[in-house]
């Protein structure tokens, strides 16, 4: 009791002290602000440097209708260059190409010196437009000084675009061509309509089908409230002509996500499968393949758009196609979609909810789910990103048909017992509910396939886990408080295909070391259907035990670490589909050598191995072990003598980046172990794909390579604090076509020795002076690497 009291007093005093310090800081900041205001009276004007920062660049979108589009672009550009014009308004019918035009304008001017800053703001219909308009009007002044209407495509442009969407290899017969032109006329010059209809008719060479399509298009008035007939008749036609009813259902499901949202393949596929679209497919991997095919079919039909994203594969819906989907589902009274809305409670109208099968309140203001809601047909309930903090204990009482429940990123600390009655639930997603400490018993949820508890504060798995014999995916990454994974639970997951636990407090060791307390490595090895494994091992002994079992050979994807996800000793990451293998080794005083593993190695990262002196291949004759290597990063290995052997270069044809930093004893980056002989020093080495080489804080480095390096793709050379390095081995003829920058200190640059006086003259324009004290750069790069790992786990 005395200890508890003392801790409470310490905590209380800490809070008091914190508030006192904060009050003092606020007082000082107020004084500082007053002084700044008084000193900010610049009678003779003020000059401010241009804003420096990252400007978002959008992927280039192909512009359609060259003549019409260029005319519209020219109008906008003329207004932008007119000093008398302060504001421009661009309007036009839905699907006419306004967003495409403005994307081109944005990309053209983003880096131009004409404007200090270029800003792109995406405003969805769910946003508070009145508030946004008020803020913009106040900042910019009322009204637009130029109004520009975006015209539809001309007849010949429409026809050209339509034929393009039919396919360049497709030739229209004399009988079909006039019908096809009539189809294009029905699209009324609207690019979105032409694109979707053209995609729907791709590959059709039957005259009867074309005549029927024209008739369908003429009669395809959507008759849906609030939709413009011209464009939506085309979109409805394209929807009706999707391959199968499953394609149409999957398309409509996408409307549950917010407007302009980038939807990850994984999220979409997970929910499609859990909601019963592909119940006939038992194997999770085969189900993913089927869903992936559906997504590609929808993209080919131009009903979904591809998105570029560093975090994976994403798609999005055009806002008009989403409007169509919502209108169709509203008419059938099967969907309730209130995303990013101010709705404060769950819909209660029983006459409305009797037929509803899917509800999405994603990112809404719902804070509480009160009382029980009778939704006998409800199969999907999405509340991800809402403000949900409390759920009535009877709320799920009458939702026995529910299959997908996503409450991720909510604020509640516990869940009601009525959750235990969802006997048909297939996916329970509670990801990053950071306050969640306990989950009710899952003993009755025997149909559960996916359980996502990543980022929660649970200490123990829910009761009843040993009865989840149908579970396919268990997600427990970043569960920082998880104390135990019972043997009984793991051993009962006879169909488990994915075990995701990187960043969890629970580390895997051998069962012998566990001494009966929780599951161990041997229990993982018994999971015969496992295809994806992301786990941390407690030490190298446990890691070696798993590797020796050979179980990993049956996996399609794995991330294995020794230590933890953010400060690991060994990390091996492999993806069967991309054939990529990444190896990261760090933070050890024990390892003095590292051997190359699988031939699929694409990335090698070695950090803080204080006694490492050698990197080698176990079988030097198997040079193909490096054939896929793209990136080498070596940092803080003070005893390492070299990075690469000359004998390896013949297979390093895919190497793109080399980073070497803080290796004090390194004198040569590339060495010849004697098997090549001095006579071969004149034979150049070719690295056709090398783009970047960074050498930092290598005080004894004297040579990169004694041979000439031919690097026709090299864009950047960075040399920081390498005072002994006096020569660059790169062939000048191969550099000039690709080189963009050489970065280093002026002192180092002036001390370099050249084979020819002309070489320095040719390279001088690419040189950028950078001081040697760049420790912050190294710290930033390590921080970025830590963030990258955290993002990949998420």
- Count every helix, treating DSSP H or I runs of 4 or more residues as helices: 22
Please give the CATH class of the domain at 245-332. Answer: Mainly Alpha
- What does the average pLDDT come to? 80
The CATH homologous superfamily of the domain at 245-332 is called Winged helix-like DNA-binding domain superfamily/Winged helix DNA-binding domain
Structural class: alpha/beta
DSSP summary, beta strand count: 32
Layout of strands and helices, then pairs:
Layout: H1 2-39, H2 66-81, E1 88-91, H3 98-109, H4 129-140, E2 146-149, H5 155-166, H6 177-186, H7 191-200, H8 207-218, H9 229-240, H10 245-253, E3 263-264, H11 265-274, H12 284-300, E4 305-307, E5 314-316, H13 319-332, E6 335-337, H14 350-353, E7 358-360, E8 368-369, E9 380-382, E10 390-391, E11 404-406, E12 427-429, E13 450-452, E14 473-475, H15 487-492, E15 498-500, H16 511-514, H17 521-525, E16 532-537, H18 540-549, E17 557-562, E18 570-575, E19 580-588, E20 593-595, E21 601-609, E22 614-616, E23 631-635, E24 644-645, E25 657-661, E26 670-671, E27 685-686, E28 692-696, E29 709-710, E30 716-720, H19 732-735, E31 741-744, H20 746-751, H21 757-763, E32 767-769, H22 775-793
Parallel strand pairs: 1-2, 6-7, 7-9, 8-10, 9-11, 11-12, 12-13, 13-14, 14-15, 15-16, 16-17, 19-21, 20-22, 21-23, 23-25, 24-26, 25-28, 27-29, 28-30, 30-31, 31-32
Antiparallel strand pairs: 3-5, 4-5, 17-18, 18-19
């Amino acid at each position: 009791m005395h200890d508890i009291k003392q801790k409470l007093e310490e905590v209380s005093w800490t809070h008091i002290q914190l508030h006192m310090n904060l009050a003092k800081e606020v007082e000082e900041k107020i004084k500082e602000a007053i002084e700044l205001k008084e000193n900010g009276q610049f009678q003779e004007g003020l000059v401010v440097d241009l804003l420096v920062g990252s400007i978002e660049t959008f992927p280039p979108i192909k512009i359609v209708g060259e003549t019409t589009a260029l005319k519209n672009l020219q109008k906008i550009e003329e207004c932008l260059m007119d000093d008398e014009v302060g504001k421009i308004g661009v309007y036009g019918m839905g699907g006419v190409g306004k967003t495409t035009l403005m994307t081109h304008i944005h990309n053209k001017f983003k880096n131009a010196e004409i404007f200090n800053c270029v800003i792109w703001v995406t405003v969805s219909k769910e946003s508070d437009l009145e508030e946004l308009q008020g803020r913009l009007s106040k900042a910019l002044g009322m009204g637009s000084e130029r109004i520009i209407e975006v015209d539809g495509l001309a007849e010949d442009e429409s026809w050209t675009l339509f034929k393009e969407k039919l396919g360049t290899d497709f030739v229209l017969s004399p009988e079909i061509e006039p019908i096809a032109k009539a189809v294009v006329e029905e699209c009324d010059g609207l690019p979105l309509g032409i694109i979707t209809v053209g995609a729907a008719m791709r590959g059709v060479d039957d005259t009867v089908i074309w005549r029927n399509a024209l008739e369908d298009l003429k009669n395809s008035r959507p008759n849906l409230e609030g939709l413009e007939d011209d464009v939506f008749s085309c979109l409805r036609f394209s929807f009706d002509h999707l391959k199968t009813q499953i394609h149409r259902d999957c398309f409509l499901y996408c409307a549950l996500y917010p407007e302009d949202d980038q939807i990850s393949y994984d999220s979409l596929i997970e929910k499609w499968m859990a909601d019963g679209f592909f119940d006939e497919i038992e194997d999770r991997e085969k189900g993913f393949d089927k869903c992936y095919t559906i997504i590609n079919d929808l993209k080919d039909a131009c009903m979904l758009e591809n998105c570029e994203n560093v975090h994976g594969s994403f798609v999005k819906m055009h806002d008009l196609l989403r409007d169509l989907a919502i209108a169709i589902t509203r008419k059938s009274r099967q969907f309730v979609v209130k995303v990013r809305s101010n709705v404060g409670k769950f819909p209660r109208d029983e006459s409305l909810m009797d037929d509803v099968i899917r509800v999405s309140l994603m990112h809404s203001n719902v804070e509480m789910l009160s009382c029980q809601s009778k939704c006998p047909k409800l199969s999907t309930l999405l509340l991800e990103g809402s403000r949900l903090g409390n759920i009535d204990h009877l709320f799920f009482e009458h939702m026995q048909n529910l299959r997908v429940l996503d409450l991720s990123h909510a604020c509640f600390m516990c869940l009601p017992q009525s959750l235990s009655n969802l006997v048909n639930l297939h996916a329970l997603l509670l990801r990053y509910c950071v306050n969640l400490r306990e989950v009710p018993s899952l003993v009755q949820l025997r149909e559960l396939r996916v359980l996502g508890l990543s980022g929660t504060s649970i200490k123990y798995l829910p009761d009843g886990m040993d009865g989840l014999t149908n579970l396919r995916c268990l997600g427990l990454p970043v569960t920082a408080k998880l104390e135990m994974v019972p043997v009984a639970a793991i051993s009962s997951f006879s169909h488990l295909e994915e075990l995701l636990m990187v960043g969890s407090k629970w580390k895997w060791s051998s069962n012998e070391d566990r001494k009966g307390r929780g599951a161990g490595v041997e229990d993982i090895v018994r999971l015969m259907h496992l295809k994806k494994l992301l786990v941390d091992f407690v030490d190298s002994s446990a890691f070696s035990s798993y590797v020796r079992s050979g179980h990993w050979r049956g996996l399609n994807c794995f991330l294995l670490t020794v230590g933890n996800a953010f400060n690991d000793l060994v990390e091996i990451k492999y993806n069967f589909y991309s054939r990529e293998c990444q190896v990261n080794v760090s933070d050890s005083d024990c390892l003095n050598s590292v051997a190359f593993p699988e031939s699929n190695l694409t990335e090698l990262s070695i950090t803080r191995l204080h006694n490492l002196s050698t990197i080698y291949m176990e079988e030097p004759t198997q040079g193909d072990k490096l054939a896929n290597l793209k990136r080498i990063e070596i940092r803080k290995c003070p005893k390492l003598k070299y990075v690469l052997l000359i004998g390896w270069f013949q297979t390093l044809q895919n190497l793109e980046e080399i980073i070497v930093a803080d290796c004090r004893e390194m004198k040569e980056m590339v060495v010849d172990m004697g098997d090549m002989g001095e006579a071969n020093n004149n034979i150049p080495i070719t690295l056709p794909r090398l783009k970047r080489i960074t050498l930092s804080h290598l005080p004894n480095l004297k040579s990169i390579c004694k041979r000439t390096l031919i690097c026709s793709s090299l864009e950047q050379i960075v040399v920081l604090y390498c005072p002994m390095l006096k020569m660059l081995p790169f062939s000048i003829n191969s550099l000039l076509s690709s080189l963009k920058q050489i970065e280093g200190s002026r002192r180092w640059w002036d001390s370099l020795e050249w084979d020819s006086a002309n070489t320095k003259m040719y390279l001088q324009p690419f040189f950028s002076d950078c001081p040697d004290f760049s420790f912050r750069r190294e710290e930033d790069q390590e921080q970025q690497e830590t963030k990258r790992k955290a993002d990949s786990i998420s």
